[in-house]
Design goal:
It is built from six helices and 17 strands. By secondary structure, the chain is of the alpha+beta class. The protein has a six-stranded mixed β-sheet with strand order 2-1-13-6-7-10. Strands 4, 11, 12, 15, 16 and 17 form a six-stranded mixed β-sheet that branches. Strands 8-5-14 form a three-stranded antiparallel β-sheet. A hairpin with a 2-residue loop joins β15 and β16. It is globular, with a radius of gyration of 16 Å.
Length: 232
């Protein structure tokens, strides 16, 4: 698993790719995929410590299917090339795109980037690497996330507004996707806040069967240090 973090030169995240999630955050539905970046330093591998909440931050979870890109660079993919798109993926993981929601909301109001809201250390818990054979169709997987054993998110990836070939096409027109890069494909409805002491579990099921490699369990703790969110 450490190799995913070591090999990822970038983490590309698709925003607003599930209709009900767009509604719950009162966002506008995009006409085409849009994306932002998280630093690889935000990746939290399994069993490598707690998820840290910085002071003053309203911390939200967002479970997502992560694509781990394959051996060859991907550039200018034709969105109609589904075989080429899926062939460019080496494997999968379950990821939780943690967001400092109040930091992000302020950035939105002021037209500023989201880098701080998305980029803290530990803000991307990832599962173990999932071989492609365990998720034959990435558009037919069931993602779930629970907080303290209470289910908060549970939906199928078939609800993606923009399917994976379109997503990879849009990204690769702008920047080359390199071997080991991670692509987060969006989160379904049900996002919400967690506090210190909460335990988050997440995973993926295929045809009703749990994919063991996709399990995540992580505790939230308060982060020590000088950072504290204050409105700029």
């Amino acid at each position: 698993m450490a190799s995913i973090r070591a090999n990822a030169r970038k983490v590309v995240c698709i925003g607003r790719n599930y209709a009900e999630h767009i509604k719950e955050l009162h966002n506008a539905r995009p006409k085409s995929p849009f994306f932002f970046l998280k630093p690889p330093s935000s990746i939290l591998p399994p069993r490598s410590g707690p998820l840290l909440r910085p002071r003053g931050v309203q911390l939200h979870y967002e479970v997502e299917l992560a694509l781990i890109m394959g051996r060859k660079p991907l550039r200018d993919l034709d969105e109609r090339d589904e075989e080429g798109a899926l062939g460019a993926i080496a494997g999968y993981a379950v990821g939780i795109d943690m967001t400092a929601r109040n930091v992000q909301d302020e950035a939105k109001r002021k037209g500023l980037p989201w880098s701080i809201a998305k980029g803290f250390d530990t803000f991307l818990p990832l599962s173990e690497y999932i071989p492609k054979a365990l998720i034959p169709d990435p558009h037919a997987a069931h993602l779930y996330l629970s907080v303290n054993d209470q289910v908060r998110q549970a939906d199928s990836t078939e609800l993606m507004l923009f399917r994976i070939p379109r997503v990879l096409s849009e990204i690769s027109k702008v920047m080359t996707l390199e071997p080991g890069d991670v692509v987060l494909t969006g989160t379904p409805k049900g996002v919400g806040a967690v506090e210190a002491g909460d335990v988050i579990t997440a995973g993926v099921r295929v045809e009703g069967r749990e994919v063991e490699e996709g399990k995540i369990e992580v505790e939230v703790r308060d982060r020590e240090g000088p950072y504290e969110f204050r409105e700029t």
